[in-house]
UniProtKB/TrEMBL annotation:
An individual GO BP term: D-alanine biosynthetic process
Chain sites annotated for binding substrate: R165, M340
Full protein name: Broad specificity amino-acid racemase
Organism per entry: Cystobacter fuscus (strain ATCC 25194 / DSM 2262 / NBRC 100088 / M29)
Highest taxon of the lineage: Bacteria
Residue ranges of the TM segments: none
Similarity annotation: Belongs to the alanine racemase family. Bsr subfamily.
Residues spanning the signal sequence: 1-21
PROSITE patterns, per the entry: ALANINE_RACEMASE (PS00395)
Length: 401
């Protein structure tokens, strides 16, 4: 047998092994990089149903899918939105709007941040309902509608509870005057009145709700509007789940539908898991220093697993010498600094760990889990920021188990 033929015989089985699909998915390993993000579409659908079960027939669900569905991937989740007949999706960017429409969603599409005039104009093909929080911005949108002979639906955002970001301040004489002038602008159709809640506290939400309802009622009365044709909405995930009085005509849960509220509401399921595989296992003697800056010194002879993921892949340097991963169902501590594309974990207590073993950085393996609470504490940030980083940096794989 020739050398080339022998090499082919040896390599081919390895290639075929790597082309097998990941368990529970249809994506071949050959198409997946060093790490991947699993998106559980069944868990997402469960969370949507769980939210819908809390709503009365008079309250619509508007699923917030901004930032590419909080990093989960609109393209993977919009089929669930369509199949469950969710009537409304909220987004922030035109890119997200395009993904939603390309996914076959034909329902209400609401932007929940102020858009630049150019964004508004570019978004006309997507039939967005735009957020408006001041008179000048409303005039820009009105001008765009005039140029294109279009009536653009808008949601008037009120600064009722002091987020101080998008909303019109109605407590001042100028705010009231601007609100009434805004209602007279041509090529705009007031579709909703909204506010945004800054604090996850029931009493704070109730105070904000009372003020919002008072301000919305003033606008409806002074503007001679038909209340039956308007959507009043303010409830985020916290308010949707813990302050049912805030449901009004529509709720806008974001984190809850991705499982972010699992700690307070265990009926929700985590949609994202982050995984990689052991690259190698190395033995080092006691006294060895590990990683850049020698921040870790081994106190015993140790086995360290090389994990082919780093801060370039969204696994932040904050986890240096304090994070944990799961391998073969057991927790293993991070040793040393997180590098750009790799880090080490101590597997001395599990000498059976082998290259190719699955590594869970966020999610479950066996009876153990790396939870969002520990990741948030370790990184000093929100789980949303971590998930968006993982979703941008790594391929996303849909699973339905």
């Amino acid at each position: 047998m020739s050398h080339a033929r022998m090499l082919l015989v040896l390599v081919a089985p390895l290639f075929l092994l790597n082309c097998r699909a990941h368990p529970g998915t249809s994506v071949p390993r050959a198409h997946v990089s060093n790490a991947w993000v699993e998106i559980n579409t069944k868990a997402f659908e469960h969370n949507l149903r769980t939210v819908k079960a809390r709503l009365s027939d008079k309250t619509q669900l508007c699923a917030v899918m901004k930032a590419d569905a909080y990093g989960h991937g609109i393209d993977l989740l919009i089929p669930s939105i369509v199949s469950l007949s969710v009537p409304c999706v909220a987004i922030a960017s035109n890119e997200d709007a395009q993904r939603v429409r390309d996914g076959g969603f034909g329902g209400r599409l609401v932007r929940i941040r102020t858009a630049t005039p150019q964004e508004v104009e570019d978004a006309l093909p997507y039939a967005l309902e735009e957020l408006v929080g001041n008179l000048a911005h409303a005039k820009h949108i009105s001008d765009i509608g005039q140029r294109h002979a279009r009536t653009i639906p808008i949601h008037l955002d009120l600064n009722a509870r002091g987020v101080g970001r998008n909303g019109l301040e109605l407590s001042t004489a100028r705010g009231k005057s601007d609100a009434l002038e805004l209602l007279k602008l041509p090529h705009l159709q007031l579709t909703g009145i909204m506010t945004q809640l800054p604090v996850e506290d029931r009493e704070d939400v109730l105070r904000g709700l009372a003020l919002f309802k008072e301000e919305a009622a003033w606008i409806i009365e002074q503007g001679h509007l038909d209340r039956g044709k308007l959507l009043l909405h303010c409830a985020n995930s916290f308010a949707t789940l813990d302050v049912p009085e805030s449901h009004l005509d529509m709720v806008r849960p974001g984190g809850a539908i991705y499982g972010e509220t699992m700690d307070a509401h265990p009926e929700f399921k985590q949609v994202m898991e982050v995984k990689t595989r052991v690259a190698s296992v190395n033995a080092y003697p006691a006294g060895s220093t590990i990683g850049y800056d020698r921040t870790a010194t081994l106190q015993r002879d140790s086995l360290l697993a090389n994990i082919p993921m780093g801060y370039a892949d969204g696994y932040r340097r904050d986890f240096s010498n304090q994070g944990h991963v799961l391998i073969r169902g057991r927790r293993h501590p991070v040793v040393g600094r997180i590098s750009m594309n790799t880090f080490m974990v101590d597997v001395t207590e599990a000498p059976d760990v082998q290259p190719g073993d699955e590594v869970v950085l966020f999610g479950h393996q066996g009876v153990n889990a790396i939870t969002q609470a520990e990741l948030q504490q370790g990184a000093g940030t929100l789980i949303d920021e971590l998930r968006m980083g993982w979703g941008r940096a790594n391929p996303r794989v849909a699973k339905s188990e």
